[in-house]
Design goal:
Blueprint: H1 2-5, H2 16-23, H3 26-29, H4 38-42, E1 51-58, E2 61-68, E3 87-93, E4 100-101, E5 104-108, H5 109-121, E6 130-136, H6 138-144, H7 164-181, H8 184-187, E7 190-194, H9 200-211
Parallel strand pairs: 3-6, 6-7
Antiparallel strand pairs: 1-2, 4-5
Helix pairs in contact: 5-7
Length: 212
Amino acid sequence: EQAYSRGNEAALPEKRASLSYFFFSLDRLFDPSHHPTEQDIAQCRARTIGITETTFHLKDHEMFMVDVGGQKSERRKWIHCYQDVTSILFLVSLSGYDQCLAEDRDANQMQDAMTVWDSICHLQWLKQTSTIFFLNMDDLFQTKTINSDIKNFFPDYEGEPGDAKAGREYFRRRFTRLAHKAGRSKEREIYIHVTTATDTEMLRVVMAAVEG
């Protein structure tokens, strides 16, 4: 438990919620007649490596989604995906504010996400492309801020320790400011949503808003 509490220093996957979910469902999971539920699937994690293409239907619309790996070694491949993009879904883990990168222990996940976001906002290919921005893993963020002060990693943060709402607004402003600085907001609107990926009902509401 003590080692896991310092997992942010070694970029351990933040799966405590998932581990707890599966641990307390062992009897159900090992039942021979068990069939995975939506929540079982939502609790699973798989790191994106390379470029994955998926086609699905959202009401009357056919969506073609291209999922790209976020690791530094994967980013050089992104240039092959810029053509004919109608919308960008940019996901940032709120709980990554105190996490290092798996490939660079001296780099902060949230700072790295801001750097990537800033570069995307400056890309001429995507100037006219609408963006749906997800501040994800809000459930882990709310739990983590109780014991891990945001100010320890972002000295200009002025909220109280443990105030998850103030923390969310702080990061929302930081990313919005980068878009404004790049002149992005003058070209296309940026829609920001706070999400918990395992909350399927919340995601249905968000995706309905995305469709609109």
